[in-house]
Amino acid sequence: MLKNSEADAPRTNADAPRSSEGWEKYLQVAAPQGAQGTVRIAALLRIVAAHNTTGMKISEIASLAKLEQPTAHRIVTALNSVGFLSRNPETRRYHLGPLLFELFTTAFPHFNIQEICQPAMRALADTLGDSVLLTVRSGFDGVCVDRQEGTYPIRTCTVDVGRRRPMGIGAGSIALLAAHSPAEVETIIEHNRERYLSFNTTAEDVMRRVENAREQGYVYQEVLHLPEIKAVAMAITGKTGHPFAAISITAIASRIPEQRVPEMVGALRQKVNEISEVIAQQGYV
């Protein structure tokens, strides 16, 4: 464990972040006096979590956190020793450790993304009249975990609740993938390269869609190989950019012409922001 003298000691010039783009970016809270070291540790865990699939070397953690490498090494070594981080001996990269997963399993019942999103999804379905879907990430896949039907008589059930597909297949999945870090996106797409072929698409096409989503801030596309159906989607992220899920709205193409997209994006963005606020109020940022 970190000794109090290490965890809670006032920062020296060597330990201080070199800019506001360092560790403070990942956990923007006002630390109680004498507890800044604890907040910094939590921020470092968020940095590793954002790159958990590929893992991170200490030098990479130090660079993103804007910490001197000896300081980062001391903190990372301590986190590894208590099980908050785990080091792969072959790659020398750090991943989230087993103790965090154990704690998460205990805490998970108190965080239900489907329950949090359902009122906003219901409101969107009622207001816009179209189908609203919620997608979350599971490993290298996107999974539809909820669907709310609108009042428009022609339904567009493009994916069933519980359906699992490679990340990057479907508007919601594209939006969610685009919210991840570039390194994570590359890892996910490369892992799914062969799997995309069974959906008659390619890794290059998925990357192009991800880049478009990043530029626009949302997804607007035809449902894969169903040109008569279109979708608009947006990711739900925390205050530090952590991607929690994505909401997509699907309808027959005539109901989502380009001139209606701003209206739908505006309604979607409002609800996504409301959801993000609820998540932040529960302490998940």
The chain-level structural class is: alpha+beta
Query: What's the level 1 CATH class of the largest domain?
Result: Alpha Beta
* CATH architecture name of the largest domain: 2-Layer Sandwich
Taking pLDDT < 50 over at least 5 consecutive residues as the criterion, the unreliable ranges are 1-20
Strand content: 15-25%
Structure summary, number of beta strands = 8
Shape: globular
Distance between the termini: 25 Å
Q: So, the CATH homologous superfamily of the largest domain?
A: GAF domain
CATH topology of the largest domain: Beta-Lactamase
Number of helices: 11
Fraction of residues in H or I helices:
40-55%
- Please provide the ordered H/E string of secondary-structure elements: HHHHEEHHEEEHHHHEEEH
Largest sheet: 6 strands, antiparallel
- Total domain modules: 2
Q: What spatial order of strands do you see in the largest sheet? A: 5-4-3-8-7-6
Rounded to an integer in angstroms, the radius of gyration calculated over CA atoms is 21 Å
Q: What does the average pLDDT come to?
A: 82
Topology:
Layout: H1 4-7, H2 36-49, H3 58-65, H4 69-81, E1 85-88, E2 93-96, H5 98-107, H6 113-128, E3 131-138, E4 141-148, E5 164-166, H7 171-178, H8 182-191, H9 193-196, H10 203-216, E6 219-223, E7 226-237, E8 243-252, H11 261-281
Helix pairs in contact: 3-4, 6-11, 7-10
